[in-house]
Amino acid sequence: VGGLSAKIHTGRSRNEQVSLDVRLYLRSSCDTVLGELADLLEALLTLARKYPHAVIPGYTHLRRAQAVLWPHYLLAYFEMFARDVERFQQSRARIDVLPLGSGALAGSGFPFDRQAIAADLEFPAITRNSMDVSGDRDFALDFLYSCSLVMLHLSRLAEDWILYSSEEFNWMTLGDGVTSGSSLMPQKKNPDSLELIRGKSGRVFGDFTSLFVTMKGLPMTYNRDMQEDKEPLFDALYQTSGALSMARAVADSIVLNPPVPAAAAEDSWVVATDLAEELARNGVPFHRAHQLVGQFVLESVKAGKKPSDWTAESLPAFAPEFKPAMARLLSPAEGMKSRELPGGTGPSAVAFALDEAAARLASLRSALEQAANKP
Predict the structure, then answer these.
(1) Threshold 0.85, pTM exceeds
(2) Mind telling me the catalytic residues?
């Protein structure tokens, strides 16, 4: 090329070129994570459809609260990860802006056609202010924040499944491929994969915090501190991608033991709210209904009675507000039928939600496929 090579850098700054390269890297990284999120969403739906009628206790304060369907529980995590999909799509849109033509901070002194360059590099837009470009790593923080939320949600899911697969809960069994034995105790089957997911979350949070604090006190425009963005970005992608892949493998391996959580629901008083609401539907003021059911539960616990120990004949004997027909609500599966509002755990509502979630996933898959095949 000879002397022509000395002209290549004309009108270009390292600042804008680094910004471009990081954006290209993160644009691809977002697509990678979006694909892995889609895989996990699909695994959750598959696991939900395997046990469509399984009843489990729902918890508040880690205390049995109300009965829910197993698919309803998994759809809660589906919604969390669906929001993560939205976050990565939004992050990608802010990443996907061409910085070339901004120079070091004041813009290029040569009449580049920035729109043409954007089209060549498949950027839908160009940046608006050259000084902002020089000192901007918001798009990198968006990516790190999105990774952090994914890891937060994965950590919560891991905590649930560590508990539910323990001997104390015994709701589910994890596959041998995602567990390990003890170096000393032959009987152990440790949920190492889930514990590592939970542990890796702190590492990704640290990646976000690292760059966030680095950018905190920087004056306009570029400062060399900003080169510290690379390591947290590379690490966050590696850890988040690995954790998503492992979570999908765990979900694929799970075998639910439906009678165990069903018994936990039936033996506890998760039906109390169903009874109180039925009293309210029959004209009893809810405050009074709440007190009455509270007394009913307290006396039952003192007497060692479970909900199934009461009958259509004995229930009204406790208080005249109780009607014989209300005894059906002593079964957790029956009480759920009153929760058919959109977003509730009623069987019809959950069936609709599963179909709607599958349609959203199909739409995401289609968008990812179109993006991958774009010329």
Answers:
(1) yes
(2) 61, 182
